[in-house]
Amino acid sequence: MPASTIKTPRSRSLKGIAGVREPKLLFAKQLQKAPGLEAASTTPAPTPYPAAFRTRMADSAGNSVPGIHMAAEDPVLLLGRWLRQQGYHFVTTTPATHARVNARPGTGVAQSLQDVFGWSRPFSPALLPAPVLRWLEDGDVIESCNGLLRSKVRFSTLADSLFVHSAYPTADDDSVFFGPDSYRFAALIQRTLAQSRAKVDRIVDIGCGTGAGGIIAAQTLKHAAAKVILTDINAAALRYARVNAELAATLNTSFRQGDLFEVINEPVDVIVANPPYLLDPAARFYRHGGGELGSGLSTRIVLEGLPRLTAQGMLILYTGSPILEGRDLFWESIASAVQIPSLQFEYAELDPDVFGEELDTPGYSQVDRIAAVALVVYKIGPDLIIHSPADR
Ligand SMILES: C[S@@+](CC[C@H](N)C(=O)[O-])C[C@H]1O[C@@H](n2cnc3c(N)ncnc32)[C@H](O)[C@@H]1O
How far apart are the CA of 205 and the centre of ligand 1, in A? Predict the structure, then answer.
């Protein structure tokens, strides 16, 4: 590619971001070699979105909701579309792997789109076209970092879609999760629903995060008319879920903020969930499961979700269970709810040992291991009334 085809980003100062320097020529030369940017430099620069869109936000009914952008107007959606045009691809690892890879020599400053939007490395403003910097700024997803910039979002590839989520490290209370659990959850949904012959009118993803579960369920079922309801307690998750649903062209999608099923008043054909299942002293939304050793939300999803299923409905739950002296504590909390004649279920360990580093923390001092588990429940009988264990 001739060097003359490379567009050097316009010099500009980023409002509200300290320490942004003018692009250096030296960096512009490095840019020519950055693999993730070769495609970027051969495509036309993206068109900036109208500034007037920036502050307009609304919920699914069109009402104004602070903090939730309408996806069609969200600069992060424009960024995602642009990344897709560049052929961007990234698979998110565990935080431990991320830390190891980023600790290697020569990884301090981003050289490619994958470095910026996958590995969350600081970057020079010269690395990105000016409209991309502006989307990051107007979407409020950029920060200064030791005289450079850093994206506050990552983009990860799952199936054929891109999913925006929070940058590494996910330290904030309202960080939006996507990781290896999301990949295992998606694979469970795909293999379960690929065999399904049931008519599906409504899919609900409880604790949707990026929306990956509901979006993959809709893609697998290919029922164009099915409604997809993505719910989460975290408004930031719903903002990104909106963007991701647009990026994946998922039809008939709505977004609801609330605690588990409090926002679901209608019968549901397919419930999918990958809730938090750890004990997190910081109680971050994406990580803290509450209850006994983190199983609280997972148990509630089974007990509160099953009565909401239509005849022939199904629940697909991916979660983690603390194993203590051979006892599976999550299974013990839901066994009596699923072992009834009107239900069939499958329960299996998908990975015997996840988040092993948690066992060093005080809350887990008695736990042998944390297993990643899959529970799939099929409703085969009349409507259910499930009592919580406390009622028995
Ligand atoms: C481990 S993340 C998984 C996200 C997504 N399902 C995935 O697989 O990538 C758990 C999600 O549950 C949400 N969550 C936590 N507590 C919740 C609650 N009480 N009601 C609804 N969502 C909740 C979190 O905000 C977070 O997005």
Answer: 9
